[in-house]
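Write out this protein's structure.
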Amino acid sequence: MNDIHFATLGIIIANVLVSLKGFSDTYFFERYKFGIGAIKAGQKERMFTSGFLHVDIAHLFFNMFTLYFFADVVINAFGTPKFLIIYVISLVAGSLLALFFHKDEPYYSAVGASGAVTGILYAAIVLNPGMELYLMFIPIPIPAYILGIGYLLYSIYGMKSRLGNIGHTAHFGGAIGGYVTALIFKPDLIFTQTLMVILLAIPIIILLVLTKLGKI
């Protein structure tokens, strides 16, 4: 494994420290988690702070491991400042989409870095759609763009069916944040990776259409 970049390490440390505090302090956890009622009452900071809290060690580990795996692709392409910008934009984009879809559910709550991490994942896929990834129980490599498209289509299904105790909306919002910001930072991808840019946009277009039709 390569040496971990200091920016990635800093994010992981911040997530670990805040999450450990949340594990041991129920008041802290409840005060800073994403909660529709509290956010609409004025506690807008929850849209950011919730991205550093996690439900348990497994939740924390999975998000941080995914971040570690894809962070270098984004850092090598854009540098540290833009990597951090993508991370924060993706985090906030995930919260904004969750707020939009769950605005009439005052008791809806969520925590986790999944939106931010999914943004980094999707930015990495935009930059290198042909990289091969392995999933558990699948012995053959999967091209990154197929995984990215499949993951967002699954997220749409999860949003529509309220599948499991998973923040599908935040994942999708984070992916949009990573996708759009990566293209803003490197617009030549539109011309050098035109087909992939279009393919990766398909789930986003599907979500917009379904939302317009009132199907989600």
